[in-house]
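Researcher: I'd like a structural prediction for the single chain below. Treat it as a standalone chain; there are no partners to consider.
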Amino acid sequence: MMMDHRQSHIDNLRAGLSVLVYPLQLAVDMPRAVSEWFRESLATRRQLQEENASLNTQLLMLKAQGQKLQALEMENIRLRELLDSSFKIGERVLVAELMSVDLDPYKHQVLINKGELDKIYPGQPILDADGVMGQIVHVGPYTSTAVLITDTSHALPIQVNRNGIRTIALGSGTINRLELPYIPNNADIQPGDLLVTSGLGGRFPPGYPVAVVQGVQHDPGRSFAAVIATPSAKLNRSREILLVWPDDTSTLETGSTAPAEEQLPLEDIQEVTGQPAAMTEGNP
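Model: Treating it as a single chain, here is the predicted structure.
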């Protein structure tokens, strides 16, 4: 031992033995190492699953919030358009929202979330950001019913913005079409002409956009041209609308609640069309 201590003759032997014993040490230690590896692997896998589930939940919530933000963004755009429209109108206005649409294909009516408590009155005009939509026909305490300008019972006094020719726009029963039945064949009206409210009849103040002329057909065998127009308002898409109070509503608030085509006096129809009242009503 003294010689080994001084001259280290056994170090090489000890090193060789340690190399031989190392596999035995690994074999003895392997069960513990394997159990620790499995425990760490399972813990890491469980943690990854929990993190994955949490991230999936967060992703789903963010997607839902993103959809809501898109809807709010579009609503904000529509409200800004309505607000800009109200500045252009220059009269008292109130923003309302559509609650339901009449499913009867022969009626173009909508229900809005404003009523008598909001000072709504029968015959009150309603608009969207692009033009006239219709008018109120029935008022309840909290809700009101409005008829659209395309309803077959609705008649609206209008004029051609370009030259002032007056006529009446009748609802056709089709959501994107109005009929102008009393335009003489020699009248100066062309596709693309803007039609605006004339102010006759006492319901709609003058100057509101109503429609754009879509087509004009002249038939020599008939007294009047066949003129159709496309409404300016987005009747089948608008969700928010404007309720308009003209400058003088005293006469409107006491007006009749009869159907829209009966709210235009016969003398006004005669003035608008330039034809006798009996002819405008379809009589010979």
